[in-house]
Amino acid sequence: MRELTTFTAGTKAKSSEVNGNTTFLDPEQVGIYYVHNYDNDIQTAIDAAATGGNVVLGVGTYNITTPLTITTDGIKIIGSGNGSLIKDNGLINTECMISLDADYVTLRDFRLAGNDTDKVDGIRTTTGEDCGALRMNNVRIHNVNGQAIRLEPSTNQFSVNIQACLLANNDMQYNTTYFNQLQDSQIIGNTIICTGAAGAQNSIALGASTGANAVIGNTLDDGVSDLGANTVANNPAT
After folding, report:
1. Rounded Cα gap, residues 139 and 185, in angstroms
2. Is residue 115 part of a domain?
3. How many CB atoms sit inside 10 A of residue 80's CB?
4. What's this model's pTM, rounded to 2 decimal places?
5. Which of 12, 126, 218, 228 sits at a 20 to 30 Å CA gap from 153?
């Protein structure tokens, strides 16, 4: 990787330079936007990225007061592992941390954390919004006090793939994850647990999701509901 230089926040980002808030690296050429531990700058990078652009999070805590909203197809948010933390810093109850209305989005290698007070969801679509071919890998969602993942009914909820994620200490009342119209999707090898006193109704609720979905090899502390014609197997209880 080429050496990056810094310049004063507020000036226009040039090729191979980084500004003091949102860090852009050759966005016109390679579509990569680096963000280094500055509150709310993730949304700035998301908005700047074109279809297929990468938003790369450095190690640090990113406090958000409004949901991160993704409406451009193909955006990838890529963290640096557990050291990249997106944290609720005063979201309004019933909001979510990441709102999706785009296809082919990738979320990878970062944490989402609530504040134990606000009842917000982790990752959510609302009715009619798209999330086709959503890819989630090594994302940890904890302490959001809502549902870790909630995908409402949509005709574009195909080929979703969620693997190697940890969804813990979420949702005191409802299903920990809720998928309403999944098609040809995979939920494989995740750990989904709730330690609230009331517990979750189910670790995974498939709602009106139709056949050809695979829910396999997840470690759960509760069951899977609305099985339908989906393949559900080898999901041991904690």
Report:
1. 17
2. yes
3. 13
4. 0.82
5. 218
Q: Do 41 and 29 meet the contact criterion of CB atoms below 8 Å apart?
A: no
Query: Among 94, 86, 147, which Cα is nearest to 118's?
Result: 94
Return the amino acid letter for 166. L
C-alpha distances in Å from residue 210, one per residue of 81, 157, 158, 225: 33, 11, 10, 13
Give the Cα separation of 17 and 218 in Å (integer): 43
> Contact at 8 Å (CB) between 178 and 146?
no
Name the residue with tokens 């995908």.
Answer: 151
Give the C-alpha separation, 104 to 5, whole Å: 32
For the chain, which residues score pLDDT lower than 70?
1-31, 36-40, 155, 169-174, 194-201, 210-211, 238
- Report how far apart, in Å, the C-alpha atoms of 140 and of each of 24, 186, 231 are: 26, 17, 24
Q: What is the pLDDT of residue 135?
A: 93
Tokens of 49: 């990225």
Amino acid at 102: A
Q: What is the pLDDT of residue 201?
A: 65
What total number of domains does the chain contain? 1
Residue 141, in any domain of the structure:
yes
Q: Give the domain range for residue 52.
A: 5-233
Q: What's the CATH number where 59 sits?
A: 2.160.20.10
Is the separation of the CB atoms in 69 and 96 below 8 Å? no
